[in-house]
Amino acid sequence: MSAPAIGTLNNSPKQGGKSASAWLKLRELPVTVALVVLVVVTAVINPLFLSPQGMKDLLLNATIMMLLAAGQTMVIVTRNIDLSVGSILGLVAFGTGSIFAANPNMPIVLVVLIGMVFGAVLGSLNGLLTVWAKVPSLVITLGTLYVFRGLNNAWAGPKQHFAGDRPQAFGNLSVNTVLGMPIITLVAVIVVIILAIFMIGSRPGRDLYAIGSDPEAAKLFGINVSRRVFTAFLINGALAGLAGVLYASRFNAVGATTGSGLELDVVAAAVVGGVAIFGGSGTVIGATIGAILLNTITSSLTALRVDKFWQQAIVGVLIITAILIDRLASLRHAKNLREKEGRNV
Amino acid sequence: MQVSTAPDSTPVLSLTGALKTFGPVVALADGTIELRAGEILALCGENGAGKSTLVKILAGVHSPDAGQFTVEGNQCSFKSVADSKAMGISVIYQEPTLFPDLSVAENIFIGRQPKNRLGLIDHALMRRNAAALFVRLGVPMDPARSAEGLSIADQQLIEIAKAISLDAKVLVMDEPTAALSGSEVRRLFGVARSLRDAGAAILFISHRFDEVFELCDRITVMRDGRYIGTHLTATVSVEDIVRDMVGRDIDALYPRTETVIGEVVLSVDKLSRKGVFSNISFEVRAGEIVALAGLVGAGRTEVARAIFGIDKSTSGHVTVHNTALPVGNPRAAIAAGIGFVPEDRRKQGLVMDLSVARNTALTLRHKFSRFGLINSRAEKQTAATWSRKLQVKTSSMDQPVSTLSGGNQQKVVLAKWLATEPQVLIIDEPTRGIDVGTKAEVHRLINELAGHGMAILMISSELPEVLGMADTVLVMHEGLITARLDRDSASPEAVMHAATGSKEKNS
């Protein structure tokens, strides 16, 4: 019995790198291919699309969504969801505007920190309610979506803060570039990379996948499910807070409705990027690429002079396609396994 | 053969006189087991003998109410699964729980993944370590693949690999072979033997005597939650073990009532469902109780579901009073006069949040409705009638059934079906999870119903119930009927042998 075993192991020296078939199984592959095809096709038809200014616009538009999608991935991977991120972003963005309006000389770094802490507090509220009340986070965060938005309405009323109230340097974060990238995009990219490393390379990060894969088994394995889920909501809130501050840098006006409806775009980006809506699999990088793809579609359809009304329908088709590809792939995978094992018996 | 197992060596694990009760139900009265290093010990007993409870105590899932528990001479009282693991005990369940989205290697090392200099998980090292474990086990397995879609046999091997990586001294295998093919069983046995020879203590739980006798060094038998005895495999026969497992006075518990048996009501002819059961034929007559006996997983519930039409049979016929039932149509089955009391009351028999009245009348809602609305007064009257007949203990007909005790819930399910005045009643595990007093009441009820001419098909894993109640006993094993016994020839030994698929010598 042991002889064939050792033989098989000797035959598979691929310990470090990935084989071709392993690359094909990557969940980020479809969304990446879609993005590349979209960019190439658009650029061929309209060469201005890939001009430095065109690229910069593309990245700026995607920045906020990249951050939100990366954070949302953490939550979805644990078999939860946070629908309140648009409202968190709105509150923090208006808060940022208010801080600068009252105190234009406040250091930018401090404002960013305040925004992230504010977001983290709101996110941890989601986490606490989900973990303690044991109510599905879909319901909890649907509730906090309205509560946070209501607070924003009460606070802002009809008032809006405009970019003119904010320091020039703050607005420049969205104008100046480093390595061809706007500074806020660079910030988002760094955050996404840190989060991706956390999810792939740390025990708490892997625990999140285990929890989403089988919450009951995770408990049996001694994983502190409540603490991990709570932390995921907290970090997601902090990222939504960061996105709120960056939003105030990027856009002129922040007010009571800032960020409304963003939550569905975020979930769409994650799903298109290969994050399984029932948890357990998907990556931060995939979701980020999904966010870039959704924003690029909007830009490229504009560049191709396609009627704006088609854009939403195309995004919808993409979401359904992403899920169908996923489903087909897993069905085929299961069938292959059955056949392989059938031969062994 | 290994002779390194000195019979007088100190036990690795010893549990003595463990008691575990759940409310009024005594699940384990005297849980006693002694495991030594370098041996494989079998634990045998009928369903309900307390084996699972004992395993859960070892695993740290339950803590015993009383009893002595030592591991390597140290007193233990486990508060959690983690405590049990920390003491070197690993349990491999019949169906392991793995994380399907994670890789094989990660399933083994989750929570203790090796880290590199940067403090990040070293995925390559983790895969190498996993591969080394599989080499030790002598089985091929790609550590990088995801656990999704792995066969149960492979999932068990991952659990065993994990146990080894945790330096487990005691390995408990709870019916590991129930879902394995022949070659998978041989592979598992090879692994078990090599672990034993390396000094591990293994507790092996199985209903298959051929496996027990092939693999194990000693055999411990339990019955009715009590330790009965331990034998050296070399000096004991299958007959001895079976006698230990069933030996009790059954007649005292179940007074037999003589009933007049009438014409054939339910007739099942060569019923098959591909891959589940095949060629099932039997008849149930008016006033007759037919018991479908066998071990859990033998396919009995599946047969009942196919008769009632919940699952589609792939061939064969079911007829009630000479009228053939259409395949896969429970409404037609109800109309033909079949009632079905399922095994899992909470999931299949009751709507837990609805009232006693609503639940009782659920099967009759067509009769009570006028213009699509249900007449709740008629509903309550019917419910009250049947609740009185069955002595359901409830403060009002409006009380939600979720607040009733298990026994009373079972009565509501019975009432629900009796209200349809069925001619055939299929009842799956009628007394599972209910206390002894109610149990006797349910038995009395079933006897009465048969006395009134109802044809009853009863599925039961409890041998005394089967032998005490049934006029005819059908025994199933792995999807086939392996024995048909009438009341006089149905002995515990005969049922046990047919249920385990072992050959009975000289009888």
What does this structure look like?
The complex is a heterodimer of chains A (345) and B (507). Chain A is an all-alpha fold and 345 residues long. Chain A is 74% helix and 2% strand. Chain A has a single domain, classed as ABC transporter involved in vitamin B12 uptake, BtuC, CATH 1.10.3470. Chain A has helices at residues 2-11, 20-25, 29-45, 52-77, 85-102, 108-133, 137-156, 168-172, 183-201, 203-213, 215-220, 225-250, 262-272, 284-303, 309-344; strands at 161-162, 177-178, 181-182, 253-254. Chain A starts with a helix and ends with a helix. Chain B has 507 residues and is of the alpha/beta class. Chain B is 34% helix and 25% strand. A six-stranded mixed beta sheet of chain B has the order 6-7-8-3-9-10, sandwiched between helices. Chain B has a six-stranded mixed beta sheet with strand order 16-19-20-13-21-22, with helices on both faces. The longest helix of chain B has 16 residues, at 182-197. The two termini of chain B are 32 Å apart. Mean pLDDT of chain B is 84; it is low at 1-7. The interface between A and B is large, with 41 and 39 residues. Chain B: Residues 13-249, 255-503 form the ABC transporter domain. Chain B: It holds the Pfam family ABC_tran. Chain B: It comes from Paeniglutamicibacter terrestris.
